[in-house]
């Protein structure tokens, strides 16, 4: 089947499902602007490039199908190099030149810094790269949307899977000594207690390439059945696993979202076999029934797209749906109404981006699935059903 036919079939299915509207764009309808502080360069560029591509493709799909109730969605990004001051400057530049109702931010620090300005202007709903648990507070952060489960929720999904697989298991948590890394620690302790798990080991390290031999000895003494890594992208996860394996530990190792990109895990080599973790979305290559959005993505890009791509894509679809709800209700597009539009998203079919219908809870979508790396397939494959946290 040609790419054009696949694209038409996917768009037709989305129209039928109500995911996007086929209403013709009217020239008198005002554009809806999605601004973006995007780290296209710098230490987070590996994710920023994917996020940018995901947003770009999502915007194109929405506009090709008639926009948001006839309003064209316009994406205006600026590179930030993952620096808060540059992100603030990008926000100020974009909002001074455009009437911005939707925004994508590049970090937790930027989200917290710019939140008072979002509240003051009262015009904009913002999503972004952060899953920080602190942001999941509609009273304190009424204009923020987290496009998936928070970091506490991610660890909770993993622990729920562990409790189902091995009740009473011993669990270790290894996190980076950063705000990102510390985020789920207290929540993990509470969840472990609630689920009857023994969180018998908590280790913090500097992020990146560090000597972990002392920490691995602590792991050897504790002999946890599972170890969850959080606050890292790759290193020092391979170092931990390699040394633990050389000591004969049969511990199962797990990661959270930013450690779960298929290509990133594959860089671990043979020790990646069996590595597990939580992912809020389907992978690019997932073959699933009734997943026209995945078909559409693959028709547009014939090579693997990263987790960051899926996150940027999902963020845009959800923000657009919030705006659609506001317009359908005949209300003004502003921050409070957009958040109401977000909260109105219940049992939303994402076209296969997530494997179950999506509902917003608080500022987030507490849904995920546990995957495990299959070395023979060189792919993360499902190890659990979709898990929704109540």
What does the model show?
The strands form 2 sheets. Strands 6-5-7-8-9-10-11 form a 7-stranded mixed sheet, with helices on both faces. α2 runs parallel beside α12 (307-328), α3 packs parallel to α4 and α12 (307-328) crosses α13 (335-343). β7 (226-230), α9 (237-246) and β8 (252-255) form a beta-alpha-beta unit. The protein has helices spanning 3-17, 45-64, 84-97, 108-121, 151-165, 179-182, 185-195, 213-222, 237-246, 262-266, 292-300, 307-328, 335-343; strands spanning 32-38, 73-79, 100-105, 125-128, 170-176, 198-205, 226-230, 252-255, 276-279, 367-374, 379-388. It has 390 residues and is α/β, with parallel strands linked by helices. Mean pLDDT is 93; it is low at 1-9 and 21-26. The chain contains 13 helices and 11 strands. The radius of gyration is 21 Å and the shape is globular.
Largest sheet: 7 strands, mixed
SSE sequence, one letter per element:
HEHEHEHEHEHHEHEHEHEHHHEE
Q: How many distinct helices?
A: 13
Taking pLDDT < 50 over at least 5 consecutive residues as the criterion, the unreliable ranges are 1-9, 21-26
| Beginning-to-end CA distance, first to last residue | 41 Å
User: Tell me, what's the shape?
Assistant: globular
Radius of gyration of CA atoms, rounded to a whole number: 21 Å
Strand content: 15-25%
**Helix percentage range:** 40-55%
Query: What number is the mean pLDDT?
Result: 93
Structural class: alpha/beta
Number of strands: 11
| Sequence of strands across the biggest β-sheet | 6-5-7-8-9-10-11
């Amino acid at each position: 089947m040609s790419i054009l036919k696949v694209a038409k079939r996917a768009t037709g299915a989305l129209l039928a499902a109500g995911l996007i509207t086929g209403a013709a764009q009217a020239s008198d309808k005002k554009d809806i602007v999605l601004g973006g502080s995007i780290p296209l360069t710098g230490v987070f560029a590996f994710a920023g490039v994917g996020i940018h591509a995901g947003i770009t493709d999502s915007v194109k799909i929405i506009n090709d199908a008639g926009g948001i109730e006839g309003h064209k969605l316009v994406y205006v990004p600026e590179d930030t190099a993952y620096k808060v001051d540059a992100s603030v400057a990008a926000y100020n530049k974009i909002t001074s030149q455009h009437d911005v109702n939707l925004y994508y931010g590049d970090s937790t620090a930027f989200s917290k810094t710019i939140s008072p300005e979002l509240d003051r202007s009262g015009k904009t709903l913002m999503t972004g790269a952060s899953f920080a648990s602190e942001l999941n507070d509609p009273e304190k952060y009424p204009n923020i949307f987290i496009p998936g489960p928070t970091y506490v929720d991610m660890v909770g999904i993993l622990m729920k899977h562990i409790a189902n697989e091995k009740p009473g298991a011993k669990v270790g948590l290894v996190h980076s000594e950063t705000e990102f890394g510390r985020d789920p620690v207290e929540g993990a302790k509470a969840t472990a207690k609630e689920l009857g798990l023994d969180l018998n080991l908590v280790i913090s390290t500097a992020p990146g390439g560090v000597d972990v031999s002392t920490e691995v000895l602590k792991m050897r003494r504790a002999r946890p059945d599972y170890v969850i890594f959080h606050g890292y992208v790759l290193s020092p996860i391979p170092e931990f696993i390699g040394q633990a394996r050389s000591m004969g530990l049969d511990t199962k190792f797990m990661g959270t979202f930013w450690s779960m990109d298929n290509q990133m895990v594959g860089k671990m080599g043979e020790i990646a076999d069996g590595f597990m973790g939580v992912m809020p979305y389907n992978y690019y290559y997932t073959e699933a029934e009734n997943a026209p959005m995945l078909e559409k993505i693959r028709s547009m890009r014939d090579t693997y797209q990263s987790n960051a791509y899926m996150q940027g894509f999902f963020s845009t679809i959800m923000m657009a749906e919030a705006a659609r709800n506001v317009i359908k209700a005949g209300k003004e597009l502003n921050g409070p109404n957009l958040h109401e539009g977000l909260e109105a998203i219940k049992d939303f079919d994402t076209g296969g981006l997530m494997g179950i219908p999506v509902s917003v809870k608080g500022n987030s979508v507490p849904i995920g699935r546990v995957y495990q790396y299959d070395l023979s397939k060189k792919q993360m494959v499902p190890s659990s059903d979709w898990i929704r946290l109540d």
